[in-house]
């Protein structure tokens, strides 16, 4: 064959060199064109308003929603009617179905027919939630234990994936200031503090105005179980109300405690509007309604009453475990568990007198718990003190002479409330969580409430045990010039039990440290005899008369 001349080869090479950049640019343009979404012709109604030309493009909204998760889709569908229609399309729910479960599970669990992806998603989700409640939850109640063998309530709470919400409404069915009947508030994770034995909800209302009287509703929804329950209902009273229980105040706010003790309302002194609130709920009070709807074995394992026992002559009077936790709005002040708590041998039974301001009523939220009889619940219907017949348990004995109390607090007991303009710090005010386990490891008494320390030498709780064990004069105290050296924490639940804590402020932590961190000197627990009889099936109330 005839070979090309050198001049032809040089001309061809020159033409290829000039055409290479053009070809590369064309290839890049084709690649970018493939990445761009193709334009589609949209048919719009010319007679429709201009806003309809934007929101009627529901398939564009659906295409954007298919890239979101389930919480975002639920928020988007509440924007308008067109967004609701777009978020209900099969395009969105197909992506949600395949995104929540992998392709193998989606292929095996989903119906092979096309369409109705939303219904398939909900059916599969409800089936998994039912299986979690029937099988997984009872096993978790048995497995989730602390190192000492007691139930780990915090891990149980976290396994349910619970979110909280608040609702404020007028008490008589009226209207709010904005014309609505109920104001719903969904809480973020920053507004919920989870402790070892309780959950604390804290809110401050800077842009919202609420004027008492109001009704507060606290609800909890578990995404693991797919159920929602109302946990607490409390009344927000006016500061001028006679039944209003103001436990602390400062220059700007008044802190009013609800009748159950779990809610603490911050009210402005200037106009008596609600500035914020705290709600403390024990883990047992949160878990109980969710466990009650499932297998009975789960609730029985955690807080089931023991069976009859005719052999033990000291039935219900020994081998208790008392878990005491004190915390502020964000941090723990003290936490310890006391084991092998038994009744005092010299003063096993007796009568107590508690100041009326320390007695709280939590029976409305605990109807399934054992309650005292009608006579015991009546107690002292009126008067300054509440009287009841109790059993005396010494949880922590007072320190011996020459020593100091062995259990110090790690932080000062105080409560801080922060608004946009002011910050209030309440000394000697905190939240107390008490959890009592019987000899079988079941929870027989659990409470969480806001408490203010009682200063002064006299205790707000009077009993034979207190008169015999609590010393009026302690020569081991030092630096008594800075305020009262003894303060009291009294937690009394109407018809159930009473817990008394003595704090010593006369001992400094280290030499040269001016912080007054208190130490727990003595703790006593006083369950009412009718409460013990309801739990153990005994007859102490009738025999002690």
Helical percentage: 25-40%
Low-confidence stretches: 6-10, 12-18, 31-42, 364-382, 479-483, 508-513
- Which percent range describes the beta-strand content? 25-35%
Outline:
globular
Task: Give a quick account of the main beta sheet: strands, pairing sense, barrel closure.
Answer: 7 strands, mixed
Structural class, by secondary structure, is alpha+beta
Number of helices: 15
Question: Averaging pLDDT over every residue, what do you get?
Answer: 80
* Termini Cα gap: 130 Å
Number of strands: 26
Rg estimate, integer Å: 33 Å
Give a written overview of the molecule.
Helix content is 28%, strand content 30%. It contains 15 helices and 26 strands. The strands form six sheets. Strands 14, 16, 17, 22, 24, 25 and 26 form a seven-stranded mixed β-sheet that branches. Strands 3-4-10-9-8-7 form a six-stranded antiparallel β-sheet. A four-stranded antiparallel β-sheet has the order 2-1-5-6. Helix 6 packs parallel to helix 8 (117-143), helix 8 runs parallel beside helix 11 (296-303) and helix 9 packs across helix 10. It is globular. Residues 6-10, 12-18, 31-42, 364-382, 479-483 and 508-513 have low confidence and may be disordered.
């Amino acid at each position: 064959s005839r070979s090309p001349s050198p001049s032809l080869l040089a001309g061809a090479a020159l033409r290829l060199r000039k055409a290479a950049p053009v070809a590369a640019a064309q290839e890049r343009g084709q690649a970018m064109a493939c990445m761009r979404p193709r334009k589609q012709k949209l048919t719009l109604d010319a007679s429709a308003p201009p806003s309809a030309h934007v929101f009627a493009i529901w398939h564009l909204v659906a295409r954007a929603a298919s890239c979101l998760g389930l919480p975002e889709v639920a928020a988007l569908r509440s924007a308008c009617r067109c967004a609701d229609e777009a978020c209900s399309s099969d395009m969105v729910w197909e992506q949600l179905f395949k995104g929540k479960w992998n392709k193998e599970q989606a292929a095996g669990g989903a119906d092979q027919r096309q369409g109705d992806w939303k219904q398939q998603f909900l059916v599969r989700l409800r089936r998994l939630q039912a299986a979690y409640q029937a099988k997984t939850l009872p096993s978790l109640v048995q497995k989730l234990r602390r190192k000492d063998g007691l139930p780990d309530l915090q891990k149980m709470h976290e396994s349910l994936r619970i979110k909280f919400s608040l609702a404020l409404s007028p008490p008589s069915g009226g209207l709010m200031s904005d014309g609505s009947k109920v104001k719903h508030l969904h809480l973020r994770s920053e507004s919920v503090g989870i402790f070892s034995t309780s959950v604390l909800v804290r809110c401050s209302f800077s842009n919202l105005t609420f004027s008492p009287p109001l009704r507060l509703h606290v609800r909890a929804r578990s995404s693991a179980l797919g159920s929602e329950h109302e946990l607490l209902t409390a009344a927000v009273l006016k500061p001028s109300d006679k039944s209003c229980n103001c436990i602390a105040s400062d220059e700007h706010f008044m802190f009013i405690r609800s009748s159950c003790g779990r809610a603490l309302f911050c009210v402005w002194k200037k106009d008596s509007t609600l500035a914020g609130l705290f709600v403390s709920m024990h883990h047992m009070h949160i878990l109980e309604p969710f466990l009650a709807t499932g297998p009975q074995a789960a609730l029985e394992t955690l807080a089931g009453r023991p069976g009859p026992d005719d052999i033990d002559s000291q039935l219900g009077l020994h081998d208790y475990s008392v878990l005491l936790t004190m915390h502020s709005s964000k941090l723990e002040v003290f936490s310890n568990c006391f084991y092998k708590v038994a009744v005092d041998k010299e003063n096993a039974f007796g009568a107590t007198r508690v100041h009326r301001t320390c007695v709280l009523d939590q029976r409305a939220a605990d109807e399934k718990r054992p309650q005292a009889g009608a006579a015991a619940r009546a107690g002292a219907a009126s008067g300054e003190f509440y009287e009841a017949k109790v059993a005396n348990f010494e949880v922590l004995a007072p320190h011996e002479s020459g020593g100091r109390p062995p259990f110090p607090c790690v932080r000062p007991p105080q409560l801080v409330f922060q608004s946009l303009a002011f910050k209030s710090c309440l000394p000697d005010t905190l939240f107390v969580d008490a959890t009592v386990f019987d000899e079988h490891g079941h929870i027989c008494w659990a409470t969480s409430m806001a408490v203010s320390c009682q200063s002064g030498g006299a205790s707000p709780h009077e009993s034979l045990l207190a008169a015999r064990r609590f010393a009026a004069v302690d020569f081991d105290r030092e630096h008594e010039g800075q305020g009262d050296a003894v303060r009291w924490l009294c937690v009394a639940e109407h018809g159930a039990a009473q817990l008394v804590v003595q704090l010593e402020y006369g001992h400094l932590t280290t030499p040269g440290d001016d912080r007054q961190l208190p130490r727990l000197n003595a703790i006593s627990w006083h369950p009412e005899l009718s409460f013990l009889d309801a739990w153990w099936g005994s007859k102490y109330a009738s025999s002690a008369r």
